[in-house]
Amino acid sequence: MPHPRTLYRGLITALGVLLIGLVPSTVYAAPSVAEIEKQINEAWEKLEPAIEQYNKVHNELTKNQKKARDLQKKIAPLSLQVSVSLGQVADMASAYYMTGPASRLTGLLNAKSPDQFLDQLTTLEQISQTQQLAIAGVAAQRDVYDGQKSQLDQLIATLGQQDAALAAQKKSIQAEMDRLQKLRIQAYGSSSVGGSLRIGVCPPVLPGGARATAVKKACALIGKPYVWGSEGPNSYDCSGLTKAAWAAAGKSLEHYTGAQWNESHYVSRANLQPGDLVFFYSDHHHVGIYVGNGLMVHAPHSGDYVRMAYISNMPISPSGTRSVL
Fold this sequence. Notes:
It is built from six helices and six strands. Helix 1 runs antiparallel to helix 2.
């Protein structure tokens, strides 16, 4: 997939041409609602991959932040272990200094029997081994601490870079969202969109188990506004919606179409069941949740709302009908 900034620059050019074409003219008739809708859909197909790329980066950022927190939790007890071990070695060194080899040799020479001599010699060997093990343990603990600290520093640096990139992406993408919304208002005369949000009963086919929970959740979210990068509870984008639907059924999905593709497996269209995911376009940058009878629930695009639609309305990705179970 191209870098988000490359996608964005290409999209700026495409939308610039699109906006010029939509400027009212005294010579030509204004575009019809259908023509504007078609142009918006074409522009959206170029914009949505950038949005899903944002979801991917944001998802990785969230996971890295959790790793950083986990590493921080490990550092405190590890540091304590190092301090304790160093204290034990210091105590041994102090005792050895106070008694000294001469004192120990005197003790051996003053042994009252060969057996006592051997016992005392064994004790000295055990003390030596204990010292060696303690020192080795301290060194190993120190190595672990250094390794953990190095990883944490690298993660913090990466998080800082990602955070800056996300901030720039969000500002740019939101500007294009606003432009698309203005086009939709021009097309429909208001901020709403045409057509019914429901096409009959949702779900039209009620399965059992986790599938039932997932599709009922998706149906319950119909009417929620599309907001890119959102996974609820008041708004959703396409992968945020499918994540929320399956989360209700106890199945964890990542908030990114590419990740959800990898978290699912192919099922033929003939074997598609309610709750399965349907991906669209060659790069599967859009996803909906199948609810039966050729219908899905999905979050279409900016300015629209979570709604029912026929899966045949958009080009399904190759191997794009997939199950998460």
